Amino acid sequence: MPVLREYELRDHMRPYVAREDEDLGMGNLLPFHRSSPHQPSFGASTLDLIDEAAQRIAETNRFAAESLARADSLARAALEQLSAAEKRIAKAEVDRMEAEAALEQLREKLERDFFSKLEQLEQLKEEADARIASAEDKLREAEARAHSAEERAKAMEETFERIEAAVSAKILDKSRYRAVNMGEQTAYRDAR
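The structure assignment produced for this chain is given below.
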């Protein structure tokens, strides 16, 4: 709706006021307080009322313009705040996606490291089990060799004991034979 300035309103209303001066009636006009206590003519009074109405319309227009300017300023500030909030939300969303991506990469790396370490531990366990089995086999072989050596040592000891007994027996037999031979020789010497 176009806003009329005070002088435009006065010019616009002049023909109607002049006609009403002729009719001497108020018609559809609202009564306004008169600023002067004396009674001017109806036409002058109407122009005063039009002036007052124009002033009030101008004030209303000024107030509306100020309100519109404030509303426009508030709307502009709200739009700027909304835009800033949208930018912060967009940045937060980007940051969140980057954090999720970094977290996913970290999870994948930890998972890879975990399974790699688990595989290494399993391999080390298998190697340790193999070494233990080999050591147990070597221990059994060593025990078998020790048992075999013990058996051989026992057999050798028994053989030595038999040889010693045989040698002792032979020595005793020779001693007896000598004693007997010596006894015969002594007896023969004595007899002579």
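Interim note for the steering committee: Residues 6-145+147-191 form one domain. Residues 42-191 form the longest helix (150 residues).
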